[in-house]
Amino acid sequence: MTTSDPQTSRLRRPLLLILLALLIAALGAVGWLYLDYQRFLRTPLVTETTGRVLQVQPGQSLSVLARRLHQEGLIRHPRYLTLLGRLSGQAGRIQAGEFHIPPGATPVDLLRVLTSGRVVQYPVTLIAGWTFQQLRTYLAEQPFLQHGLEEAVDDAELMRRLGRPEQHPEGWFLPDTYHFPRGTSELEVLRRALRAMENHLEQAWKGRDPELPLDSPYEALILASIVEKETGVPEERTRIAGVFIRRLERGMRLQTDPTVIYGMGETFDGNIRRRDLRTDTPYNTYTRGGLPPTPIALPSAEAVEAVMHPAEGDALYFVSRGDGSHVFSATLEEHNRAVRRYQLKRP
């Protein structure tokens, strides 16, 4: 039977104490790291009241993104964010694009946003009454769009790229507010607005009033663009459409100034004169009967509907009061009186 050496026992006791102290220190360190990690998970990343937009590049890993966020002062511990992503299974599901991080978002919220695919959407608003050239200028000025439709790309080539060769572009893009992520091409914006107009026009044509003096949806689009340019008060849209429909039914010339102005192109200086009304162009509805060859602007959905369902009545003329509204007349004599009063300012 053996007995322990008293000297060995004395040496072993301090060693055990050291090991115990190291174990306690290690447990304390682990506990501190755990609590620090939990604080990290609960700490808001964004303090701005409007939140923050974060750009994630294609193929960017979570660890690279975490280091970038650390450099930008958004997070204190990039490795904690990487660890969170791995533990939650989200590290490999980070998507590229621009993301809006709301105020008060925590790291948990951040990963939820970055894996959602809900990228920032920018509004693109097409205004009813714009010409196609105004639309192209507007798109070229939007900083979040990808620009590839240089001036060298003429309208014919643009329509070919949209899959509508030989089609005149005027009037074919539905005015509305659309939303797109950064980097969307101008062509994609036009493609979406084109499809929207084609779909709306097709449905409106199917539900049109019977016996309209229009032979095709395109003729309705042309007339809708004229109605759009003549309308100052939305409530008058169907009345204005009714005037033009009745004039077409009677074989009367439309005699509408916006078509003349469109035909003048860049020579229009803001004033329309008698000589302009007498100068023949394909768009001069004072010198030519029927509709002009193409639309003259982007008609709203409401203008299209007004043409398909014009207001009934006997008015064949209208003149502006100068406040956006019009006086409607059934006879030329009544119309001339209205012109003297509201245009010539004569009693």
Structure description:
The chain is mainly alpha-helical and 347 residues long. It folds into 3 domains: 40-120, Dna Ligase, domain 1, CATH 3.30.1490.480; 121-309, no CATH class; 314-347, Double Stranded RNA Binding Domain, CATH 3.30.160. Helices cover 47% and strands 7% of the residues. A two-stranded antiparallel ribbon has the order 1-2. Helix 2 (62-71) runs antiparallel to helix 3 and helix 8 packs across helix 12.
How many distinct domains?
Answer: 3
Tally of helical segments = 13
The radius of gyration computed from the alpha-carbon positions, rounded to a whole number of angstroms, is: 35 Å
Which structural category fits the helices and strands? mainly alpha
What is the count of β-strands? 6
Query: Helix fraction?
Result: 40-55%
Order of helices and strands: HEHHEHEHHEHHHHHHEEH
Main location: membrane
Catalytic activity: a peptidoglycan chain = a peptidoglycan chain with N-acetyl-1,6-anhydromuramyl-[peptide] at the reducing end + a peptidoglycan chain with N-acetylglucosamine at the non-reducing end
Family: Belongs to the transglycosylase MltG family.
GO biological process, one term: cell wall organization
